[in-house]
Amino acid sequence: MPELPRSSKYVSMPHAALDADERNRLVARLNEAYADGAVGSDAYHAHLDRLFSASTLGEVVPVVQDLPSVATHETPALVEVGTTPPGEVAPASAPRPMTTVLLAAAGGVALMVLVVLVLLILL
Predict the structure, then answer these.
(1) Helical spans, DSSP H, in the chain
(2) 36 to each of 3, 5, 33, how far by Cα in Å?
(3) pTM
(4) Domain carrying residue 59
(5) Cα–Cα distance between 79 and 37 in angstroms, integer?
(6) Does residue 17 sit within a domain?
(7) Cα separation of 99 and 103, whole Å?
(8) Nearest by Cα to 10 from 66, 65, 69
(9) Distance (Å, whole) CA 122 – CA 114
(10) Minimal CA–CA distance to 26: which of 2, 50, 5?
(11) CA 107, 108, 111, 117 torsion: positive or negative?
(12) Is 51 helix (H, G, I), strand (E, B) or coil?
């Protein structure tokens, strides 16, 4: 039976009330584990008894420890839509045309001239 991490709500808040939604989630996980063969018949019935008699999160720790773990994160969107195989670097983008660079430089010069004119007028 793997030990739950300290960050688990069952360990960090053992005296917190076990609400009906949490109980139902645990029963669903237990049913799935039993259907998949991860939990035996005797353990299944013992865990059901414990789940329905428990009133705090700490009382269901043995049940949660016996259940298969659940993924607590989503796959990042960048990973899902990426076309590059994992571990490989995407090819570099095409270089920008020289006209874009020249327009950006001209815009920067025009902005600098405008700033200098405004400063001269204010002084």
Answers:
(1) 9-12, 20-35, 41-53, 61-66, 77-81, 98-122
(2) 21, 24, 5
(3) 0.58
(4) 9-66
(5) 32
(6) yes
(7) 6
(8) 65
(9) 12
(10) 50
(11) negative
(12) helix
Q: Which amino acid is at 51?
A: L
- Amino acid found at 18: L
d(CA 14, CA 69): 19
Q: Is 67 helix (H, G, I), strand (E, B) or coil?
A: coil
Q: Is 56 inside any structural domain?
A: yes
Please list the pLDDT of the chain residue by residue as tens digits (123 residues). 578 888 889 999 999 999 999 999 999 999 999 999 999 999 999 999 999 999 999 999 999 999 998 877 776 666 666 677 777 777 777 766 777 778 888 888 999 999 999 999 988
Does residue 24 fall inside a structural domain? yes
| Count of domains for the chain | 1
Separation CA 35–CA 38 (nearest Å) = 8
Amino acid (one-letter) located at 123: L
Asked whether residue 72 is assigned to any structural domain, the reply reads no
Residue tagged 């899902």 (tokens): 80
